[in-house]
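Reviewer 2 asked us to include a model.

Predict the structure of this chain.
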Amino acid sequence: MSRSEFTNRIRHIFATLLLLCAGSATSLSFAADQTYDIETVASGLDFPWSIAFLPNGDYLVAELVGNVRRISADGTVHPPIEGVPPVFRMSQGGLFDVLLAPDFASTGILYLSYAAGPPENNATTIARARLVDNRLENVEEIFAASPRKPTPVHYGGRMLWLQDGTLLLATGDGFDYREEAQNIGSHFGKTLRMNPDGSPANGNPFPQNPYVWTYGHRNPQGLIISSKGTVYLHEHGPQGGDEINIIEQGKNYGWPAITYGLDYNGAYVSPLTEYPGMAQPEHVWTPSIAPSGFMIYEGDQFPDWKGDLFIGALVDQEVRHINLDGGALGEESVVFAEITDRVRDIRQSPSGDIFVLTDGNQGEVFRIRATHDSSTTTQAEASNAR
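Predicted model (structure tokens):
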């Protein structure tokens, strides 16, 4: 066993003991079936929220405060990119996702989701721009959720390219407007499908609101698609009832008519956990872990994890791994126990590395790679040797 593997195993054991001492209601194991090296790529970031991987090996990191920063492959953190549109930074509001256009390598086009003010009339918004050196050019607001609101919470903000080239945006319920998640006429608590120019995409299921793809969501914080085209979304419940859902066109995911969580005062949001015509979640966390960031691992570095789900946990300050066997969500475990801060985002790089962003005004970017030590034998290699 290499020093790196030994250190990882000891930390896993220590973290397990802490969990047991805390009396957690969730039964978890600590995965040790893959060996890895973990390194800090960058630190001192101001509430990093998302990361995108540039073709040259650099990274773009969106900070909630309203900055996009380029981080060189060697870890150099550059000054904020110029030209980022103003964001409404209050409470949960700020700059959310940075997403490269599918043809970014030739066009330099990227997309930003963010809260746009003013405070009493703000909305989840998308802008499109062209990255040139360390500035954005041709910045254009292409979408703003409607109606606007005075609350600085529950924005959603995750974006995703679907396989047909359309753009999906997940929006929150605005907290004080939770019933609007069931109103097709509103953009609160929805996934919205649009063309790259921000216009509603053809084929959306509700003529009365041409953007709406699905509805009945609370506060989505993770949105991913598998190579087979399956879309997964996770969202915050209130007290308990955090969910993973498989997103399918036209479905109602129930909030707030059905939920596995309680309101913050301990009362029922709804006495119902299921109702005809409303989709059931694939996975529920009670108590809440406050999931943020989402990844389906489809690289080659970690063969035992290929096809599995990984979720950041803000409350528990850890990364959760869920085995995905034949499409069914299976055993859940904790991985990368060395990371002990609020996890905001988790992504796979083009090379198959795993990147984790931690929250806060001293946020960090971690890179996790499979151990390539000649003295180390991974579990997969050992199995093949039998």
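Residues 3-22 form the longest helix (20 residues). The helical segments are 3-22, 104-107, 379-385. We have added this to the supplementary material.
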